[in-house]
Design goal:
Length: 149
């Protein structure tokens, strides 16, 4: 069962990728898209939403790209998912308007969704970065660590 949309999963992955690769230069959207096998234009709207949510910071110029707007231990998966959900394309075109849906089902699902987001708030980008490094999710991540001064 998938509790998160593909957009939300991609947003978390993009932020973790930026956290791992944004030193010494910001991560270009094109490089990020290449690592995740996505067209850059598809990713760009998601990244701009994360900038508006103060999760990422956009850097302009020839060596521009994206970097974290805050320390990675201060950004949670819940923050990222909320930003992706608020900025994404909602499928609100098919909304049932019955008493059962409005008075019973929706409030219960909303409470469960909030509990899920609270659980995601316990997971930081720092936690995800450490796990990615431990599992060698990016071969360049391990190589980059060898050259840290």
């Amino acid at each position: 069962m998938n509790l998160l949309s593909r957009r939300s999963r991609l947003a978390v992955a993009a932020v973790v990728d930026v956290a791992l690769h944004a030193r010494p230069q910001p991560v270009a959207a094109k490089a990020l898209a290449n690592r995740h096998n996505l067209p850059p234009r598809h990713l760009e709207t998601l990244l701009q939403g994360l900038v508006r949510a103060n999760i990422l910071k956009g850097v302009r110029g020839p060596r521009g790209g994206y970097e974290l707007a805050r320390e990675r231990r201060r950004i949670t998966a819940g923050d990222i998912v909320r930003a992706a959900m608020s900025d994404g394309d909602d499928e609100e075109s098919l909304v049932a308007e019955s008493r059962l849906v409005m008075d019973i089902v929706s409030p219960m699902i909303d409470r469960a969704g909030e509990a899920f987001l609270q659980a995601l708030d316990a997971v930081t980008v720092d936690d995800l970065c450490r796990e990615a490094v431990n599992r060698e999710a990016f071969s360049a991540t391990r190589d980059a660590a060898d050259f840290t001064i």
